[in-house]
Amino acid sequence: MRVRPMMAIGLAALTFATAAAFGTAKGTMVYTSKGKDIKTSFTYAFLVRGPDGLDATKTVRRLLLTTTDIGAKLKACETMGCIDQAFAQGLQVDWDAGPRLNYWLTLSDQTVQFSGTADPKSFTPMENQDTRLAGRLTFDATVAGGPKVDVEFDASLVKEIKKRR
Description:
alpha+beta, 18% helix
């Protein structure tokens, strides 16, 4: 008779532990490809730190906004290249790479891609630390063929990477 309550407590603890393993995101990105709007609703937010793709002397904080939990894949990565391969759909945003926020969107299992930059003022921070980013990111790059993004997120550092490739 006591087994069922203990199982319920165990399942609740497991669910809480899993939820704590990733950050949260709530919002959307709309991107027009071949005349068709592709709308993505974000659920997960991950933060990694590692060398910049263009300048290995710089360390960037990379926010990954996704529709699926890729936390286990990210934790297994040892290079920033691996992080890119683990990321099949969503939006990546690099902080600390330069005067603007660099972003890269990928959709449809990486068959649709677009990259650009956003004004740092498009980020309204609740937290902006090396190990945690939280706040709201909103920008509209549709005039330049880019996405329209409006998302609130809270992401703690999942992985620190030392190598680009």
